[in-house]
Design goal:
The complex is a heterodimer. Helix content of chain A is 75%, strand content 3%. Chain A is mainly α. A two-stranded antiparallel sheet of chain A has the order 1-2. In chain A, strand 1 and strand 2 form a beta hairpin. The radius of gyration of chain A is 32 Å and the shape is flat. The two termini of chain A are 63 Å apart. Chain B is of the alpha/beta class. In chain B, strand 1 and strand 2 form a beta hairpin. In chain B, helix 5 packs parallel to helix 6. The chains are: A mainly alpha, B alpha/beta. At the A-B interface, helix 10 and helix 11 of A face helix 2 and helix 3 of B. Chain A: InterPro entries: AA_ABC_transptr_permease_3TM, ArtM/GltK/GlnP/TcyL/YhdX-like, MetI-like, MetI-like_sf.
Chain lengths: 341, 269
């Protein structure tokens, strides 16, 4: 087909066009047909959201800002912050251990990561919650005996449901973070370490000012994945009846049987958190790409510019192209000025 | 500079430099079973400019990096003004020093890399100030002023650009300014122009040429034979981890005594 087109255009090309030639783009009929079907399906789904009463938007609205749900949301956020901050701090230490030349530290970190990636998080939370069965008292005393304690506490009073979930999630997260951070550090060119060493930079400066900021570029996308995952991962707390967002809606629909509307409450809240985190991720990643690429303008900046451009164009049309004329005159004046100088 | 004696640099003037003497003696280093440095001995006088030439893989860069202890070695010794950089001598053995002490001593020897190795997350100015500030030599304000002066000295004006926004030649000049920020007694160059486009080589060589006249000891590993001939007091030819020939550039680079040097010079010129 292409060949035919070329031959035909070759014939016509010999004629001298009387007017500027018009360009006709290739038409993608198949693409249009698929798009139409997809738009139809989306419309059907959106219509059903409104028309199908079983979605229960009234119930959704009733519970979306209810105290139980908001308390659950707060618990979810709190658990996420603790486990992510704690997990990444422990993870950084583990990553440094893994990269250290000490065989012992290396092995300790390797086995830690192996263990916490092997044990399901649910099992871990249950074990922490039931630690009192294995070790009834925790405290400081004579090693290898149970006889003499300087101080001690009953395990069950220390490891509340909240503590069990927070510890479980943090230790679990640490293992995964360690590997992400190690990957980031390994990705930094070895020449950077050599240059820092040649300048005599102390270890701390070398790690925090040179290596880590560069590693951050590859750590951040995977790291934000972990944070977004952890927001929903906190729902394992239901196993010890800790009322975070998901457990809270479960309790409510257990009472009123409005399962779908209440699940939607949780889903929409999770989506809102994920959206906020995605925006934060965009700007944080931008901050850490300084110096490596020419940064494109942010969406907000682009939107602002488009609006001002549109505003200017509207102004021009209103004034029957008078601003353009003025600017032309300006140019002419300046040229004359230059010539006269 | 004219060469008076084949083994000594000429005394430049009354203010002849007194610091920056490098003594390498009987240096041997293995990578596994491979002997990369084989009983190398070389003394570089304060203020002297020495070029090291030789085929790829001959051990030139390794030799250079042992001087600031970026490379360890298995036998022999390297001292700068009579002090070991990475070791302490007790009797007949050298004991490796703790890292903090090595870093402190290493700062007196600057190193400029083939691939610049500027820190891409820092601006040109920050690249220069990070070492003097974090080693507590200068305050940030003093270091900033010094960075500006150093950038001017290497012919650069925009201090707030990131390395990725600079050409290769500009990056290497920032790297030289960064090395100078610690006032090193000895400056080492590891093939400073090998990663540059041909048209950018000259601007870097100009900066090194200036340094050669101010009395800092320079040791330059290079493939730029013409440049080596022009700036060096002495040229060292290295092959297979051994010093094959050493002497004034006119001798080593024009009329080499050793047939292997002659062979190498014939190939690269």
């Amino acid at each position: 087909m292409t060949q035919v087109t070329i031959e035909r255009s070759a014939e016509i090309e010999t004629e001298e066009p009387t007017e500027p030639l018009k360009v006709v783009r290739v038409r993608h009929w198949g693409r249009w047909a698929v798009s139409a079907v997809i738009i139809l399906l989306i419309a059907q789904f959106l219509w059903s959201l409104v028309a199908n009463e079983k979605y229960g938007w009234g119930t959704f609205g009733e519970y979306f800002f209810s105290d139980a749900v908001l308390d659950g949301l707060l618990m979810t956020l709190w658990l996420t912050v603790i486990s992510i901050v704690g997990g990444f701090i422990i993870g950084t230490v583990l990553a440094v251990f893994r990269l250290s030349s000490s065989t012992l530290l290396n092995a300790v970190a390797w086995w830690y990561i192996w263990f916490f990636r092997s044990v399901p998080i649910l099992v871990q939370v249950l074990v922490w919650y039931n630690l009192g069965y294995l070790y009834p008292r925790l405290g400081l005393g004579t090693p290898f005996t149970d006889d003499f304690w300087i101080f001690s506490f009953p395990t069950t009073s220390l490891l509340t449901a909240f503590a069990a979930v927070a510890i479980g999630l943090t230790l679990h997260q640490a293992a995964y973070s360690a590997e992400i951070i190690r990957g980031g550090i390994v990705s930094v060119d070895a020449g950077q370490t050599h240059a820092a060493a040649a300048l005599g930079l102390p270890r701390r400066v070398r790690f925090f000012r040179i290596i880590l900021p560069q590693a951050a570029r590859s750590i951040l996308p995977a790291g934000f994945n972990e944070i977004v995952g952890q927001v929903k991962g906190t729902s394992v707390a239901f196993i010890v009846a800790l009322p975070e967002l998901f457990y809270s809606v479960q309790v409510i629909y257990g009472r009123n049987q409005q399962i779908i509307p209440l699940l939607l409450v949780a889903v929409v809240w999770y989506a809102i958190i994920t959206t906020v985190l995605s925006v934060v991720q965009y700007y944080v990643e931008r901050r850490f790409s300084r110096g490596t690429v020419d940064l494109p303008p942010t969406p907000i900046y682009r939107a602002k510019k488009q609006i001002t451009d549109l505003w200017h164009r509207l102004g021009e049309e209103d004034g029957k192209a008078s601003p353009a004329v003025t600017s032309q005159t300006d140019t002419v004046t300046s040229y004359t000025d230059k010539e006269s100088v | 500079m004219t060469i008076i004696d084949s083994n000594r640099p000429d005394p430049v003037d009354d203010a002849a430099p007194t610091v920056g003497k490098v003594e390498i003696s009987h240096l041997t280093k293995y990578y596994g079973a491979n002997r990369v440095l084989d009983d190398v001995s070389l003394t570089v006088e304060p203020g002297e400019v020495v070029s090291i030439v030789g085929p790829s893989g001959s051990g030139k860069s390794t030799l250079l990096r042992t001087i600031n202890h970026l490379e360890t070695f298995d036998a022999g010794s390297v001292t700068v003004d009579g002090r070991y950089i990475g070791y302490e001598r007790r009797g007949d053995t050298l004991h490796e020093l703790r890292e903090a002490e090595v870093l402190k001593r290493r700062a007196q020897v600057g190193l400029v890399f083939q691939n610049f190795n500027l820190f891409p997350n820092l601006t040109a100015r920050e690249n220069i100030t990070i070492a003097p500030v974090s080693l507590k030599r200068l305050s940030q304000v003093e270091a900033d002023q010094r960075a500006m002066a150093l950038l001017q000295r290497v012919g650069l004006h925009d201090s707030e650009k990131y390395p990725a926004q600079l050409s290769g030649g500009q990056q290497q000049r920032v790297a030289i300014a960064r090395a100078l920020a610690l006032d090193p007694k000895v400056l080492l160059f590891d093939e400073p122009t090998s990663a540059l486009d041909p048209e950018l080589v000259a601007e870097v060589l100009d900066v090194i040429r200036d340094l050669a006249t101010v009395g800092t000891t320079l040791i330059i590993v290079t493939h730029e034979i013409g440049f080596a001939r022009e700036v060096s007091d002495r040229v060292v030819f290295v092959e297979d981890g051994r010093i094959i020939e050493i002497g004034p550039p006119e001798q080593v680079l024009r009329n080499p005594i050793n047939p292997r040097t002659r062979d190498f010079i014939g190939r690269v010129l």
